[in-house]
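Chapter summary example.
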Amino acid sequence: MIVRVLDYSVVGKGSLLGRVDLLLADVGLELRGCSYVEGKKGPFVGLPSKELPKDEGSGERRWFQVVRFPDSEDYYEFQREAVAAVEKHNAGDVKAAQSEPFAQDSVDDVPF
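The structure predicted for these 112 residues follows.
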């Protein structure tokens, strides 16, 4: 998976470090409005989501994921590549803001 940073803006509010637009170059898909967050285990990219009406019982804010990866391996690969691309971009290495293709140590036989 090749991930490129299209645009990044610093937010710096709590754990929200910034907003980022990404391109999944392999499939030509743009993900606009992602969040770049400092989590307990390190940074991650939050996929676009939409706020729902507050829960009537608790009054808590709720969110609906607009985009998601049904396969957890694909999701973790995306996270590795997206975080690497954002970190390269933020380090000023804009030309290197394209992540390297994912390489598995062992590849299972693909049924198609």
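To summarize the output: Helices lie at 72-90.
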